[in-house]
Amino acid sequence: MSLFLWTAAGLAGVTFVIHVFAGGKVAARPLLADASLPPESKWLNYYCWHITSVMIAFVCAAFIWLGASHPQPPMVILLSSLTASLSLLSAGVALKGGVHPLRLPSTTLFAAISALGWAALFT
């Protein structure tokens, strides 16, 4: 179980780095530069950007904790379900926006983290 948990933690860390650095250039920077949005909408969206950063960091830390301690199946189920839901949400938002779901890294990265979590339960 531990190898899958450590791999999930590593991939969550990679996802965090991609989100903060690459995604910041593609999503956060243009959002802040857009003068046509109402201030409340702009800053609420920016706040949501940071919520995502914190959430990914917590997912990474939780998988590290599970890998380093005695794994707890309910926690693995929770994290795997959360990341699967985020992958599905990413795909749904992409489709609604007319974008292929695989063009958003969040679709595949969260799916892979989830798959590693589920694999940890069944090995």
Shape: elongated
Q: What's the number of structural domains? A: 1
Q: How many alpha or pi helices?
A: 4
By DSSP, the count of extended strands is 0
Helix content: over 70%
Give the topology string: H per helix, E per strand.
HHHH
* Class of secondary structure makeup: mainly alpha
Give a description of the structure.
The chain is mostly helical and 123 residues long. The chain has one domain. 84% of the residues lie in helices and 0% in strands. The protein is built from four helices and no strands. The protein has helices at residues 2-33, 39-68, 73-96, 105-121. The longest helix has 32 residues, at 2-33. The relative contact order is 0.17. The model has no long low-confidence stretch (mean pLDDT 96).
Question: What's this, in brief?
Answer:
The protein has helices at residues 2-33, 39-68, 73-96, 105-121.
List keywords for this structure.
mainly alpha, 123 residues
List the topology elements:
Blueprint: H1 2-33, H2 39-68, H3 73-96, H4 105-121
Helix pairs in contact: 1-2, 1-4, 3-4
